[in-house]
Amino acid sequence: MENLALAFLGLSKDERSLLSAIETGMKTHEWVPSFVISELSGLPSKKVEFLLGQLFEKKLVERESMHYLGYRIDFPAYDLLALSDFVKKGAVLAIGERIGVGKESVVYEGLGEKPLAIKLHRQGRTSFKHVRRLRDHLTDKPKVPWLYAAALAARREFAVMQRLYPAVSIPRPVSCSRHALAMEYVAGPALNRVTLSDAREGLDMILIEMARAFRLGLIHADLSEFNIIIAESGPVIIDWPQAVEVDHPHAGELLERDLVNILRFFQRKYGIDLALDEALLRVVGAD
């Protein structure tokens, strides 16, 4: 969706009700019949059919003709439902431009009490192996799992961030809805896009943050120069949905991989040589 804000403003209360009804119906139907949508939304069938036609024209619902006409939603509608929930909660007052696109998320600028970043997870569409692995943990056994896999990833990341903040330098978590996560906006370039004036101090600060996370029982498990923001206050670590507990069976391997990524970057760009064993000791053995 190119303009999430305009799409949200163009959506009526009844249309939001239908999208929410389809979302609920997708827990038991791959394609939700219109009479089920009518029952779940509480709207009369004729109005439902008319509004479904409008939503189809807006490309917010998909439909399939079988022995009945069925409907389902995908990420564009899911984005709008999450945003609607944020607005209802008072967590988000405005949404702006798209500011980031990754293989497993899209990020928009937003505004609450302070500037926000709104991260929309996309895990289900990018990794079907990931979906299959997660599906056994989805208690409602959805017929269309990718939306729920993304929601599970968002809930996981939000819980991790709540556990880490403010002890670790991460964005302040604000709210979570479905597959969307609202957090404090952190201004600054990613580590890979800036030249540090004191690279050794920068490396030391990153290792300190990794040690703080480790003391709280967590390992990032996907850390690199691409998900460390260099703010005025220092390094801020982002993107935590894949974080693992320190007692995870592969915790040691994942921590070493994180460290290798960081050490390799600082060696390549700044010529800093720090042995993996020493870096590991500084993270695991930190006071």
What does this protein look like?
The chain is an alpha+beta fold and 287 residues long. It contains eleven helices and twelve strands. The longest helix is centred in the middle third of the chain and has 20 residues.
What is the topology?
Blueprint (H helix, E strand, L loop, with lengths): L3 H6 L3 H13 L6 E2 H8 L3 H13 L4 E4 L3 E4 L2 H15 L4 E8 L3 E7 L3 E7 L1 H4 L1 H8 L9 H20 L8 E5 L2 E5 L14 H17 L2 E2 L8 E4 L2 E4 L6 E2 L5 H20 L5 H9 L3
Antiparallel strand pairs: 1-3, 2-3, 4-5, 5-6, 6-8, 7-8, 9-12, 10-11
Helix pairs in contact: 2-3, 2-5, 7-8, 9-11
Outline of this structure?
The chain is 46% helix and 19% strand.
Shape verdict: elongated
What would the CATH topology of the largest domain be? Phosphorylase Kinase, domain 1
Strand content: 15-25%
Give the strand line-up of the largest sheet: 4-5-6-8-7
Count of discrete alpha- or pi-helical segments spanning 4 or more residues: 11
Q: What is the CATH class designation of the largest domain?
A: Alpha Beta
- Rounded mean pLDDT score: 91
CATH superfamily of the largest domain: Phosphorylase Kinase, domain 1
What is the N-to-C succession of helices and strands? HHEHHEEHEEEHHHEEHEEEEHH
Strand segment count: 12
Supply the helix-strand structural class. Answer: alpha+beta
Rounded to the nearest angstrom, the distance between the terminal CA atoms is 47 Å
* Main sheet: strands, sense, barrel: 5 strands, antiparallel
Gross CATH architecture of the largest domain: 2-Layer Sandwich
Low-confidence stretches: 128-141
Question: What's the number of domains?
Answer: 3
Rg from alpha-carbon coordinates: 22 Å
